[in-house]
Amino acid sequence: MKIYVIEDNPVYNDYVCNLLRKEGFRTEQAYHLNTARKLLAKIEDGDIVLADLRLPDGESIDLLRWMRAGGKEQPFIIMTNYGEVNSAVESMKLGSKDYIQKPLLEDKLIPLVRSIQKEREKRGQSQVPIFTRQGAAYQNIKKRVRLIAATRLGVLILGENGTGKEHIAQHIHARSKQADKPFVAVDCGALPPSLAQSAFFGHVKGAFTGADANNAGYFQEAEDGTLFLDEVGNLTMEMQQMLLRAIQERRYRPLGAKEDKTASVRIVAATNEDLQKAVSEKRFRQDLLYRLQEYVITVPPLRDCREDIMPLAEFFREIANKELERSVKGFDATARNALLTYPWPGNVRELKQKVLSAVLHAEGDMIAESELELGGEQTAAPIGFTLKSGEEEKERILRALKQADGNKRQAAKLLGIGRTTLYNKLEEYGIEDA
User: Three-state SS for 268?
Assistant: First the structure.
């Protein structure tokens, strides 16, 4: 981890850096916003920014805005003088982690940095690094997360299994004003229908046979925070009605209780199902769907984001090296090709499992194709790349050609069509040779 210290007074800058170095932290120094931007262009996920509020060429709040606009989500700490607290508080609304008054910095800085470290450890460093992905699709997702996080609107996250929907929900929570409140995840598909009401709303002692004590439900556990409903389409119609009432009226009643409780939670839901189809089949309530999808984020499958495959694979290789105490250096050419052409029906979750297994089985420094154990499935047609019609079809062809670096054989394989079909489509849409 590296800490970037942005402070125009060289003496004070050195003083702060020395405090940090004594505790074993690496530091980088900058004295102006312009220099800071150049340094922070290479900032890594685990780094922290510590910046004086006022600098010769502007305020560090402008630097914070620049970072967040560019998708850089690293913790940002403001240093202030006593009279600048209001501006520092305003910076927290924009996404800064905290502020420290300079006279108190010697006592406050190290504990704050340590708390950030512990918070990261608690979240777990092996999570799928969705927000370090640089593909165009995920740049759009990051933008949508930034826009919605600060609101209280309900969010519906759509995507196949294994695409990282819960990770996106966690990130929405972490960027919200309720980030210090609970994040409670519920797997709606694993809830027995007979226990769902008690699980969501709790129960009082004696409410039913075996209820020998009061029990807090998910709504109470997530109070003032975020309640994440994974695979929400699996809820029974009866439970959907209860959930709708709790969301609409912002109150609920524990099983066996005589009074309602206030439902002070933000709902973020996710599903891999077409809920509008479920509505038409009378398996899901239209009014509940309206409530859940106040804002929608659609997560693309990994096969549609091939530019992210190798960065993710390398990330998981490093994770596996640490967990398994191995020193595998990378993937050979055959393994890279296999990774890029495999359809990944299990998405990022499957990629992680395959890489972890490959690192365990690797006999040399480089992972070979056979060690990935992808079987014959890599030749299967990628479901998400199948051609549809019109502009969408043309867009998918162009994307496949780009991801295949102009190789038509490879592009046809990505699209799940024959080369002759691809050539015909290229002529039909007037797509010139790349």
Answer: strand
Average pLDDT over residues 85-108: 72
**What residue has token string 């993937």?**
331
136: which DSSP letter? H
Task: Measure the CA–CA gap between 169 and 145, rounded to whole angstroms.
Answer: 9
How large is the angle between the packed helices 165-174 and 136-149, nearest 10 degrees?
A: 40
Q: What does the DSSP assignment read for 185-212?
A: EEEGGGS-HHHHHHHHH-B-TTSSTT--
Give me the DSSP letters along 12-25. Answer: HHHHHHHHHHHTT-
**Contacts of 105 by beta carbon, 8 Å cutoff, 6+ apart:** 16, 19, 79
Query: Is pLDDT at 430 greater than 70 in this prediction?
Result: yes
Q: Which pTM does this prediction carry?
A: 0.62
Measured CA to CA, the distance from residue 96 to residue 51 in angstroms comes to 10
Amino acid at 235: L
Tens-place pLDDT, residues 237-276: 999 999 999 999 999 998 888 889 998 999 999 999 999 9
Q: List the one residue out of 128, 232, 253 whose CA is nearest residue 190.
A: 232
Q: How do residues 193-217 score in pLDDT, each as one tens digit?
A: 888 898 899 888 887 777 777 888 8
Identity at 66, one-letter amino acid code: W
| Per-residue tokens: 50 | 């510590």
Per-residue HEC secondary structure of 61-79 comes to: HHHHHHHHHCCCCCCEEEE
